[in-house]
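sorry for the late reply, my laptop died twice this morning and i had to redo everyting from scratch. anyway the thing you sent over, i finally got around to it. pasting the sequence first so we're on the same page, its 126 residues, then the predicted structure underneath. double check i copied it right bc i was rushing
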Amino acid sequence: MIEKTVRMSLLFDFYGQLLTPRQQEFFALYYDDDLSLGEIASQYGVSRQAVYDILKRSSQALEELESKLRLVERFQRQHAALSQAVAELDAAIAELGAVEGAAGAVERLARARALLSEVEAAGLEA
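ok and here's the structure:
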């Protein structure tokens, strides 16, 4: 269930603006604010089934958009690659730290690592 919630939230981050305003409201209340179907239904004066149907259509629309555009998949691949690059730089910095006369190279690698970490953090915030 948690994996589905995380996936839906990620899809919503990428494609949510393409949903109708009502779909966006219900989706945010259900997934972000953790309201139940009954709570949303009571707040909007509709049935639980209506809320369920809107959420189901919203989820299907988001999944369909992802199947066509693959933006989330690409984002996840890029994030994984950046994480791996940072790990590789950490290993190289550790190995070069033991080599006499490699201080300049260690500094350059450390700056590259910091830059990649900034890119990675900015990608997660977007």
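The domain at 2-69 is CATH 1.10.10.10 (Arc Repressor Mutant, subunit A).
thats about all i looked at so far, will dig more tmrw
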